[in-house]
Each structure stands twice: as structure tokens, then as C-alpha cells.
Write a structure and sequence with these properties.
The complex is a heterodimer of chains A (304) and B (279).
Chain A (H helix, E strand, L loop, with lengths): L1 E10 L2 E11 L4 E5 L6 H8 L7 E6 L4 H9 L2 E4 L11 H10 L5 H14 L15 H12 L6 E5 L7 H16 L3 E6 L2 H7 L2 E6 L2 E6 L1 H8 L3 E6 L5 H7 L6 E4 L4 E5 L2 H10 L6 E6 L2 H9 L6
Parallel strand pairs in A: 3-7, 3-8, 5-6, 6-7
Antiparallel strand pairs in A: 1-2, 1-4, 8-9, 10-12, 10-13, 11-12
Chain B lengths: L22 H13 L3 H26 L6 E2 L2 E2 L2 H21 L2 H9 L2 H6 L5 H29 L12 H20 L8 H16 L14 H5 L2 H14 L5 H30 L1
Antiparallel strand pairs in B: 1-2
Classes of the chains: A alpha/beta (304), B mainly alpha (279).
The structure holds adenosine-5'-diphosphate (ADP) and magnesium ion.
């Protein structure tokens, strides 16, 4: 559905996207995971045929965005990072007006709008003003709007950033439903839990480059041990204690607020720690996540 | 609870919709829906402005004026007949100062609707065209109201050609408005530029480019204000059509050409600035 090779975008001297390669297959849920400024939105705009590339090859639905922008956009659904619903129109009218831009008749727009309001759980809000919606509802309306043209690929740029946990879960539930129906999704996020939840396969991006690629499980297997022990000794002591822990587990990361021990068995590592006579103020054993993968690959956390 | 097929499965090929020629009309339709939110402003301004001006001038100012300011083929015409076509033109120009400024800032920045449209098959140039269609329609509506009131007040001379006056109104409004649209689309922020346009461009033109008295009344050092003013060209053209103001045909042709040049030039630049900003 999407095929990118050495895809590059420069703004003046600054390279926002630095020669990335990726492929999105039909029915797949593909993710770009990376921190702020990694170049995710820039990539989405190039794929969405609203921003021309500086270099490389890009084909979307078999077409070149440089020459077939309108034809590509006709078959995409786009949920931008920043909502741009029309606050002067009512909820349902937002969908109808948008559908018209795809050349759909008013009758088709109206019928689709009702279906999609139902899907987005906004039927009761059909006649409400956009400004009266909560953040999560606005986001669901934006997703509904992106589906008005029955797109072949749905692109979501940070779908749940800024939402509270409950609203995120409602939204994820809707996206799962789309996945089940075979919709091709392209999602960007800087939340590792979102990437794990939504993506079949993802690329980890940083500074416009791809650091790793694979399914969430494969990435974790490849770049991290199975378990992680998190220890806190107080920010002043962490570094000193870490030196004493040398050799415990596969690898140790010292963060400003805690120490991470990567190990196949968290229990064993904890035992080691207490045998060494060290008493952390808090300790926790958890499964490794994409956050750990990112830390391993870049030396930084996803959310600073 | 959800419909069976919310999005096409990737295996069923969606029709490759061609970019459609009606894109600009969809944008205009959207703008009309927005205008419905301030429909009473549109109507009140449309009716109120001419009513007050024509009443005030017809009943008040005109009775104080002895001098014949202007004449048509049949001799001198009443002051209100002289001034009405210029007022009609300034009404559409005044619509332009709103619709091609705040509406544009809203589209790019406040409501951000242009960015939403941008993700559809609609191209930036069609967004411009759609705005122009919607605003021109509002100008035509205002002009028609003005004309109706002019007829009611007997403020017209030539009943054969006066029907073209709304056309002149729209042309004048666009000649002033489209360069303004081009300018507005380059602004990232409104730091009072639009208020400045009102105060330092529109108002001086309204007062100094032959609206209330012939341009020739001003010292000749100030005539250039009229020559570069779309408002003056529209007013003069309107006078020819409204009461047959006597002037050589080439002068009328120049008025039309200048207005077209402003409008087309502004349109082309606006298309470029929109494209540059959205792509
Ligand atoms: N229009 C632009 N002009 C200049 N720099 C830009 C522009 N858009 C984005 N950038 C820069 O490109 C980098 C990547 O931005 P973006 O794609 O928005 O990252 P992300 O979505 O991953 O947070 C950032 O450093 C950003 O400042
Ligand atoms: Mg972004």
C-alpha cells in the first residue's frame, strides 16, 4: 500500500526525515514509534501527498504523490496530529461537509455520517457543537471524518496524545474494530503502550532515521532481555550503586531517577541485589517493553 | 452496533476518484454553511448600510448641496444619484475587508479548516476559488439589495443599464479583495494588520477616491489616490451604468481593465501563496 525508499525531507539545511525505507502491506497495522521531533508527522505528510519529498522514492497505493496527489488523497483517511474540525459547524455537519470534498453526493454523505457517528459513539452528539465535545470525542469525530470516503488506508498521527487513560482506551477499542475489519492502518505515536497495542509491525525512528524494525514482540526479543528490574536508591546514589551492581543481569542502564537491570529472570537479579547488601527504596520486576528497546537503541527515553 | 463495512477491505479496489472539477464548489458550499452562522449580520449589513446612507444623503446632505456635481446625458443629476453607485461599490469592498482577512486567518490558524480540506483531493487553488465564489455571492447579494433600495429611492438615472451595477459591485469588491486575500494568506498571525487595512487603506480610499465628490474636486496632487484605487474605478464605472456619466469610451474601458487586472493579479498570487503554505 505504501512503499518508501531512501525517503528524505529537508527544510533548508535541516534534515527532518533522513533516508528512511519502509513498506506497508494491505490489512496491516503499521507504526512509526519515536520521540517528538523524530520526523513522524513529516513522513505522514509526505505519504498523505500534502508535502513533497526532497529525495528518495515514494509510492502510495501504487501512485507517486508528486504526480497523483489528488488521486492518492481520494483514497486515504487522515487523522492529523492537531484536530482541524470545523468548530463553526455541528458534529454531523462536519462529516457531511467533509464527505462532499471527496465528491460524494449529499445523500451518501448523510447516510455515511449516521453510520460513522454510530461507530464513533457520537450519535447523541450529532447536533452538538464541536466545541462542546471532550478531547476524546473530538478525536473520535476526526477518525469518523477520516473514514467518510471509505479509505483504503487510514493514517493516524498521534491518535491519543493528550487524552486521559479512559478516553485512550475507548479510542483504541474503535481502532481495534477497524483492524478486525481489515483496514490498513498507519499510526505514529510516542507512546510505547500504544505502539504495542495497535501495531502489527513498526519502525522505531529517531532524528529522521529508522533505528529498528519489526513486530513489537520481535523488537523486544531482539533488543532487550525478557525482564527488567527497576530499582530506586534516590537520585544521588543511583550512579554509585550501579557500579556495585556490575555483572548482575545482562546489562544495566542508569537513568536519572532509577536503575534498570536487564535480565532473563527478575527474581534472580533481585536476589543478587539483596545478597550484595543493597536496599533500594523501591524495586519492581516487569516485562521488557518497547520503551526499553528505544532506550537500548538511542540511549534516551521516549518521553523526556 | 457498527455497520458491516466501515472502510473498504484492502482487497476490494476502491474507485480511483479523479480530482473533480467541482472541488471549488464544495469549498464554496462549506463557506456558505459557515456564513449561515452570521446570516443576520450579512442581511442587516446588506440592508442597513444602503438604507442609512441613502436616507441620510437623500433626505439630509443632498438638500444642503446646491452645486451640480455631476451630470448624465440629460443634464445634471441629483446628488444621491451621483453618490449611490460609489456607495454600492464601497459596500462590496467593505465585505472584502472582512471576508478576505479574518476568514483566511481562521482557515489557516484559528479554525484550521484549510488544513482539513488540504488532506482531501481538493487542491489549494480550488480552496482559493471556492472562497472567491462564496464571497462574490455575498457581494452580489449585497449589491442586489443596494440596487433594490436605490430603485426605491429613485437614486438611479438610466433604467436600461443600471442592472449591471451588481456586476460592477462584485468586480470592484474582488479587485480590492483578491490582492488582500493574497496578502492575508501570507500572514501567520493577526497582529492588527487587518485593522490597519481597514483604517489606513479602506477608509482613506472611501474618503479620498471620489466616493462623495468627483475626484477632480481634490487638488491634482492627490488624484493618484483615485487612479490606484479599485474603489474609484468601480465607482466611476458604476456611474456610467447607473446614470450614464459622460466620459469617453476608452476611460470606461480603462476602468474595466484596471479592475480586472487587480482581481486577476490578486487571484493568481493568492493561488501561489495558498499552494506554498499548504504544500
Ligand atoms: N515546516 C517545517 N519547517 C521547518 N522545520 C520543520 C517543519 N516541520 C517540521 N520541522 C522540523 O522537523 C523535525 C521533525 O518534525 P515532525 O515531523 O513534526 O516530528 P514528529 O512528528 O516526529 O514530532 C522537527 O525538528 C521539526 O522542528
Ligand atoms: Mg508529530
Amino acid at each position: 500500500m505504501v512503499h518508501a525508499q531512501s525517503l528524505t525531507k529537508k527544510y533548508g539545511d535541516f534534515t527532518a526525515v533522513d533516508g528512511i525505507d519502509f513498506e506497508v502491506a494491505p490489512g496491516e497495522s503499521f507504526g512509526l514509534l519515536g520521540p517528538n521531533g523524530a520526523g513522524k508527522s513529516t513522513t505522514m505528510r509526505m505519504v498523505g501527498a500534502v508535502s513533497s519529498r526532497t529525495g528518495g522514492d515514494l509510492s502510495v497505493l501504487g501512485l507517486d504523490p508528486d504526480t497523483h496527489g489528488p488521486q492518492i488523497r481520494a483514497q486515504l483517511g487522515v487523522v492529523p496530529q492537531e484536530d482541524n474540525l470545523d468548530a463553526e459547524l455541528k458534529v454531523r455537519d462536519n462529516l457531511i461537509v467533509y464527505g462532499r470534498y471527496f465528491g460524494l453526493s449529499r445523500a451518501v454523505c448523510a447516510a455515511r455520517a449516521d453510520e460513522l457517528l454510530d461507530f464513533a459513539q457520537l450519535t447523541e452528539k450529532a447536533q452538538a457543537k464541536v466545541d462542546d465535545l471532550s478531547g476524546g470525542m473530538k478525536r473520535r469525530l476526526t477518525i469518523a471524518r477520516a473514514l467518510i470516503n471509505t479509505p483504503r488506508v487510514l493514517m493516524l498521527d498521534e491518535p491519543t496524545t493528550g487524552l486521559d487513560p479512559q478516553a485512550r482506551h475507548v479510542l483504541w477499542d474503535r481502532l481495534f474494530r477497524l483492524k478486525e475489519q481489515g483496514t490498513t492502518l498507519v499510526v505514529t505515536t510516542h507512546y510505547m503502550d500504544e505502539a504495542e497495542q495497535l501495531c502489527d509491525r513498526l519502525v522505531v525512528v529517531d532524528h529522521g532515521r529508522i533505528m529498528a524494525e519489526g513486530s513489537p514482540a520481535a523488537l523486544i526479543r531482539e533488543h532487550s532481555s525478557r525482564e527488567v528490574v527497576e530499582l530506586r536508591f534516590g537520585s544521588t546514589r543511583n550512579a554509585a550503586v550501579a557500579a556495585e551492581l556490575e555483572g548482575v543481569g545482562d546489562r544495566i542502564e542508569v537513568l536519572p531517577d532509577r536503575i534498570l537491570i536487564y535480565t532473563p529472570s527478575g527474581e534472580d537479579a533481585l536476589e543478587h541485589v539483596s545478597r550484595a547488601g543493597l536496599h533500594p527504596t523501591t524495586s519492581l520486576v516487569r516485562r521488557a517493553s518497547l520503551e526499553d528497546v528505544f532506550l537500548r537503541l538511542t540511549g534516551r527515553s521516549l518521553i523526556e | 452496533m457498527s455497520a458491516p463495512s466501515l472502510s473498504t477491505s484492502p482487497t476490494t479496489a476502491a474507485p480511483v476518484a479523479a480530482p473533480h472539477r467541482r472541488a471549488a464548489l464544495y469549498v464554496a458550499e462549506h463557506q456558505f454553511r459557515s456564513m449561515l452562522n452570521y446570516k443576520w449580520t450579512v442581511v442587516m449589513v446588506g440592508v442597513g448600510t444602503p438604507l442609512f446612507y441613502l436616507l441620510g444623503i437623500g433626505l439630509g446632505l443632498a438638500t444642503l448641496l446646491d452645486a451640480d456635481l455631476a451630470s448624465g446625458p440629460g443634464g445634471p443629476v441629483p446628488y444621491v444619484v451621483f453618490v449611490a453607485p460609489a456607495l454600492l461599490a464601497s459596500a462590496t469592498v467593505s465585505v472584502a475587508t472582512e471576508e478576505f482577512t479574518y476568514t483566511v486567518m481562521s482557515g489557516f490558524k484559528w479554525r484550521r479548516v484549510f488544513w482539513g480540506i488540504n488532506a482531501t483531493p481538493v487542491e489549494p487553488g480550488s480552496i482559493v476559488s471556492g472562497l472567491v465564489i462564496a464571497v462574490a455571492a455575498r457581494m452580489a447579494f449585497g449589491s442586489l439589495l443596494y440596487l433594490a433600495l436605490m430603485l426605491a429611492f429613485g437614486a438611479v438615472g438610466d433604467l436600461w443599464t443600471v442592472w449591471l451595477l451588481p456586476l460592477v459591485g462584485v468586480l470592484g469588491g474582488l479587485a480590492f479583495g483578491l490582492p488582500l486575500l493574497a496578502y492575508a494568506s501570507t500572514l501567520k498571525d493577526d497582529n492588527g494588520q487587518f485593522a490597519a487595512v481597514q483604517r489606513f487603506v479602506f477608509t482613506p480610499l472611501f474618503l479620498f477616491s471620489g466616493t462623495f465628490y468627483p475626484l477632480e474636486t481634490l487638488p491634482s496632487a492627490l488624484h493618484w489616490i483615485g487612479w490606484i484605487s479599485p474603489l474609484w474605478h468601480a465607482s466611476e464605472l458604476g456611474r456610467v451604468l447607473s446614470y450614464g456619466a459622460v466620459k469617453p469610451a476608452w476611460v470606461t474601458a480603462v476602468h474595466v481593465l484596471v479592475l480586472l487586472a487587480f482581481a486577476i493579479g490578486g487571484w493568481l498570487i493568492a493561488r501561489r501563496t495558498f499552494t506554498r503554505r499548504l504544500r
